[in-house]
Design goal:
Blueprint (H helix, E strand, L loop, with lengths): L1 E6 L20 H10 L6 E8 L2 H9 L12 E7 L16 E7 L7 E6 L9 E3 L2 E7 L2 E7 L12 H16 L8 H6 L17 H10 L5 E4 L6 H13 L4 E5 L4 E8 L5 H4 L7 E3 L6 E5 L7 E4 L13 E2 L5 E4 L9 H14 L11 E9 H10 L5 H9 L5 E8 L1 H5 L2 E2 L1 E6 L10 E5 L3 E6 L5 E6 L7 E2 L6 E3 L1
């Protein structure tokens, strides 16, 4: 039922929530967080109680109900709207201004439960993120929001790593039917490694246990540890490749004793200023990104992590820096066999192979590497207006696996205009030791097609005229600028 509709004219109005919501659900610190983080565009909050939250109930029946202290079985749920209204009758006509929901649990220590907020609900948010569509229901009215899910640890059943695994699992279960929904307690129970002691109350998780969680719920995870790579830049390039692929990852920070979800990145800066301080001829586009988008269970969704050397390391805006990351776990689909490390090594071999020719008059190139589905890739390819027709048709007709790696190469000027000079497509199911794991490569004068599925032959086709720059691929992440 709708308990109250609160108008928000300024940050101080969030204190009105305390008049209706007990402190074990809503602490003063959480109200302060609402004031600092929620956008000024939020004009109305609908307070719902009692609300049955399935994630909280999973921990309630398996843990909280066994405590001597009694806990309420019900939760409060807050619904945020961009339009101002004061009547339940106006809910339906204001559904288009819905910005998401926040569940408040009676766990007192950290009470922020399942949170589904649009990035538009967060103050000063700009960036590109993974997102899925979630649907809530209030008084029989369906309310949709596009977001990446978020939750705080409860410090008993779940710690930060559990919370991050839940966020990623819930994102995938809403976006793809192949992944079943997992509740909070399901995440905790997925761990069979008890060498460190009891699982509840939890003392924290290792990268191996995080990988075990993902394996238990249908993923095929890869673990990358920074100290195993002599070149830190190589490690960060790989991390960025998965983020650019629209694959959220768990980042572990050992010194911080913390884990966060990496789910996107900030706006793309101009190449002009960024390239001044770099000497390489082939430059990963991660250098154009000032910060990563993270879900940190110590805050509301969509916080920032510093991702370059400019500016201060740790500030209120950037509580973490990419140098804090000691390792990360990537939850992959079964048929994503070729990992980022192997793709990084392979694309450089193409430059030295003599199969394609890159004009030497351009001193520097920007390299953007990502994975995507062949279905999504061909969908954008078909709608591309500037790509050479023969090159387009050759790729549309070429049999491709479910997932592919894509290497995009641009001059700085063209990248600033969101254009690509060269694009190479690599089979994500290929073996790392294959001589030709690519499906399609080209330079300005010719393309080389590798039909790996049928006759396993290479076809070299010359263009009638020099290939001109065409549109970058953009389907993996959604931008809010």
């Amino acid at each position: 039922m709708v308990l109250k509709i609160i108008s928000i004219d300024g940050p101080s109005d969030y204190y009105k929530l305390s008049d209706f919501i007990p402190s074990e659900y809503l602490s003063p610190n959480l109200v302060d967080l609402f004031q600092k983080k929620l956008s000024s565009s939020i004009k109305s909050i609908v307070v719902e109680y009692p609300y049955v939250d399935k994630d909280y109930r999973s921990t309630y029946y398996n843990f909280y109900s066994k405590r001597h202290r009694s806990y309420d079985k019900f939760c409060f749920r807050l619904h945020l709207f961009e339009k101002k209204f004061d009547s339940e009758d106006a809910l339906s006509e204001n559904a288009d201004s819905y910005q998401g929901s926040i569940v408040l649990r009676p766990t007192e220590v950290t009470s922020l439960g399942r949170t589904q907020l649009s990035p538009k609900a967060i103050r000063d948010f700009k960036g590109f993120i993974c997102e899925s569509t979630f649907e809530n229901n209030l008084m029989g009215i369906p309310l949709q929001v596009k977001c990446f899910p978020h939750i705080m640890q409860d410090t008993d059943v779940t710690v930060c790593a559990h919370a991050v695994c839940w966020m990623i699992a819930r994102y995938y279960s809403e976006k793809y039917a192949v992944y079943p929904e997992r509740l909070l307690f399901d995440i905790t129970e997925s761990i069979k490694d008890i060498s460190g002691g009891r699982l509840i109350p939890s003392r924290g998780l290792t990268l191996g246990q995080i990988s075990e969680i993902f394996s238990a719920i249908g993923f095929y995870p890869e673990i990358f540890i920074r100290k195993l790579y002599k070149n830190n830049a190589f490690f960060y390039d790989m991390l960025y490749m998965y983020i650019e692929s629209g694959i959220p990852v768990v980042a572990a920070m050992n010194k911080k004793k913390h884990a966060v979800a990496l789910l996107g990145h900030g706006p793309i800066n101009s190449t002009f200023e960024v390239l001044k301080g770099l000497d390489d001829d082939l430059i990963c586009t991660r250098h154009l990104i000032e910060y990563l988008i993270i879900n940190d269970d110590n805050s509301l969704p969509y916080s920032f992590m510093k991702f370059n050397e400019k500016g201060e390391r740790n500030t209120g805006l950037f509580p973490y820096t990419y140098r804090d990351i000691d390792g990360f776990v990537v939850p992959l689909y079964e048929k994503m066999y070729l990992n980022a490390e192997n793709v990084m090594r392979f694309y450089k071999l193409i430059f030295d192979s003599g199969m394609i020719i890159i004009p030497s008059k351009f001193d520097r190139f920007l390299i953007r590497i990502f994975m995507t589905s062949s279905r999504s890739y061909k969908s954008q390819l078909r709608n591309s207006k500037k790509i050479d027709f023969h090159m387009k048709m050759a790729q549309l007709e070429l049999p491709m696996p479910k997932f592919i790696w894509v290497v995009e190469i641009s001059t700085p000027k063209n990248y600033d205009e969101m254009m690509v000079d060269y694009r190479w497509v690599i089979d994500a199911t290929a073996n790392q030791y294959e001589k030709y794991p690519f499906l399609f490569i080209h330079d300005k004068e010719k393309m080389i097609i590798h039909d790996r599925a049928i006759d396993r032959r290479l076809y070299k086709v010359s263009f009638d005229s020099l290939v001109q720059p065409y549109e970058l691929y953009k389907n993996n992440l959604r931008g809010y600028l």
